[in-house]
Amino acid sequence: MTGAWNNSQHPSELDPFYNVRDELSVQNGIIFKGDRCIIPNAMRNEILSQIHTHIGIEGCLKRARECVYWPRMNSELRDYISKCDVCQSLAMKQPRETLKSHDVPSRPWAKIGTDLFTLSGNDYLITVDYYSSFFEVDRLDDTSSKTVINKLKQHFARWGIPEKVISDNGPQYSSEQFKQFSKQWDFQHKTSSPGHAQSNGKVENAVKTAKRLMRKARKPNSDPYIA
Q: How far, in Å, are 117, 190, 196, 200, 205 from residue 98 at the CA level?
């Protein structure tokens, strides 16, 4: 690669790579910038479509920066996403009111939030880790305490039993069955006041994110797991 820059007659298409020339290498006929593969002009539209999965501009940029590179990639990706009808129609609006924040725990899964939501006629349970904002979504056959508890038990078996569980005061969580569940599994259960769901802001934000991704995935008939 170094010989091309020493030649004053090098092809003009190499000019955009001059400032990163020390990072370039060739492996098996493929040019890399560090660990990122350089994409030729003819393949860039295809790569843009593969990177773009309706996760938002910053999410797509992060995904691209991990593995590919070409000059002006960031601006081209932003422009590509700005023309996506699905992303524009479902762009997240600013919340009307500030949600109450909670203290961040010292480790993952020490404190979680949980809630139910409905989308397209189906009921779902969402469970959110307050440390990382990681969440899981489960489709529910019904909204009984028993079904919600069984789903939470699966998460607790996989990630560990949290110290504190935050929920609203819905019948699934205010039941005697859920009270016994918290005692037997030894976690503190705290509920928000009726009519004040914003006090569980972490979960409310996660529900908005989950709904937005699920709607985006359905519009182009794509896989919701890579939304």
A: 20, 21, 12, 11, 11
Residue 17 has pLDDT above 90, yes or no: no
Concatenated DSSP letters for 156-219? HHHH---SEEEE-S-HHHHSHHHHHHHHHTT-EEEEPPTT-GGGGHHHHHHHHHHHHHHHHHHT
Element at 114 (helix H, strand E): strand 111-119
The answer to whether the beta carbons of residues 125 and 150 sit under 8 Å apart is no
pLDDT tens digits, one per residue of 138-150 = 999 999 999 999 9
Helix axes 73-82, 44-51, angle to 10 degrees: 60
Mean pLDDT in residue range 82-100: 61
Q: Give the SS3 label for residue 14.
A: helix
Whether 172 contacts 126, CB under 8 Å:
no
Domains of the chain by range and CATH?
2-89 (1.10.340.70), 111-226 (3.30.420.10)
Q: Which residues are within 8 A (CB) of 23 and not within 5 positions of it... i.e. 6 or more apart?
A: 33, 34
Cα(171)–Cα(175) distance, integer angstroms: 6
The enclosing H or E element of 133 equals none
46: three-class secondary structure by DSSP? helix
Residues 203 and 114 sit within 8 Å (Cβ to Cβ) = yes
- The answer to whether residues 151 and 112 touch, using CB atoms and an 8 Å cutoff, is no
